[in-house]
Specification:
Layout: E1 11-17, E2 20-27, H1 32-41, E3 45-48, E4 57-58, H2 69-87, H3 92-99, E5 102-103, H4 105-117, H5 123-136
Antiparallel strand pairs: 1-2, 1-3, 4-5
Helix pairs in contact: 2-4, 2-5, 3-4, 4-5
């Protein structure tokens, strides 16, 4: 019978543990109530969720082996934000990006560039540039570009 189904419409449900999103479950509407009851009985909290729109990264997306890029970008954003705060730079471009929740890699790189530009020369800025280079390549000002 399942082989006869070409497409199944599903709804998204975030699964939360201790207030943190730990997963997104795709649920067929006919089974949504049963799945919710089972997860809640196991101690999880649920809330409606939406997967990131195509071509975007979700600021709260969990890391996954099969799709590591969102995690790489989010870790890079977080580390550069920390470095900017510690060095007296302006982490606001990254904070604003994360607050909008969904963003493209180009938007992430632009926020990183603005944040790094606000940092004074020194060890923190050098480390931030290294994180950017690893995550996004050397960029347009790279030697030989």
């Amino acid at each position: 019978m399942a082989d006869d189904i070409e497409e199944v419409v599903v709804g998204d449900v975030w699964v939360l543990a201790h207030g943190e999103a730990i997963g997104l479950v795709k649920v067929h509407p006919a089974h949504e109530a049963d799945v919710k009851r089972a997860l809640e009985a196991a101690g999880y909290t649920l809330q409606p969720g939406v997967a990131a729109p195509d071509g975007t990264i979700d600021a709260v997306q969990a890391c996954a082996v099969e799709n590591p890029r969102p995690c790489e970008v989010n870790i890079t954003l977080g580390r550069i934000e920390e470095l900017a705060q510690a060095a007296g730079g302006d982490p606001a471009p990254i904070a604003a990006l994360e607050a909008q929740r969904y963003f493209t890699e180009a938007e992430a790189e632009a926020a990183i560039a603005r944040t790094i530009a606000s940092m004074p020369p020194g060890e923190a800025r050098d480390e931030a540039e290294l994180w950017r280079a690893v995550a996004f390549g050397e960029g347009p000002d790279a030697e030989g570009s």
